[in-house]
Target: dolichyl-phosphate beta-glucosyltransferase
Amino acid sequence: MPQPDVYLSVIVPAYNEAERLPKTLRRFHEYLSEQAYSYEILVVNDGSRDGTAEIAGRAVNDIKNLRIIDRKRNMGKGYTVREGMLAAYGRIRLFADADNATDISHFEAMRAFFDKGYEVVICSRDPKDAAGAKQAVSQVWWKRLLGNMGNLYIQWMAVPGIWDTQCGFKAFRDFAAEKIFNSAKINRWAFDVETLALAKRFGYKIGIVPANWINDPRTSVKFGSYFRTLWEVFKINRRLKKIKL
Model:
């Protein structure tokens, strides 16, 4: 069966997002339906225990070009994004968080990089990456502190030169997405680091767009996740050296 011709796939990993998902899907529909290019929205349910799957299923009737992957077992955000990236049809594949903290309209700035031949384009909340980046509603102090300390470690171990690896708004050309995510192994929070480290390892050009990011205090990232992420970064460092180009 021939694959549909789609310019943009938006992958939305969703774990217990019954409250936030409807507003985000409406915003995606509002923005994307006004664009000249073809698109799809792919919600990947990561074994949610609330009504995420049911709400996403009902939204199919109202949200244009919406597809659902409803997995019953929780496997982690990395696994979920990877599943969506490899199931997507788009020539460009973007993953965006279910809280829309980085608004979907940021994709317009990304397109300029893709038009110049970049294979990967990310949003950053750090002005050291891109002038004008900011956190319109900032995180609590301990998350900012841990994030800053952790980034120095991440740059040293895996992704030199990028100050914000964790912003949940990253886009890939289809061939880059398939190579990167077929090689990726991390299922939890450090998957962002792994995808960027693999992109660098494969020689892909990475463009950075400034984010106007609005924190949602209901995030599911817990205190212990930061330390698990650092351990996963160590494993990424060891594994990168074994990957054949």
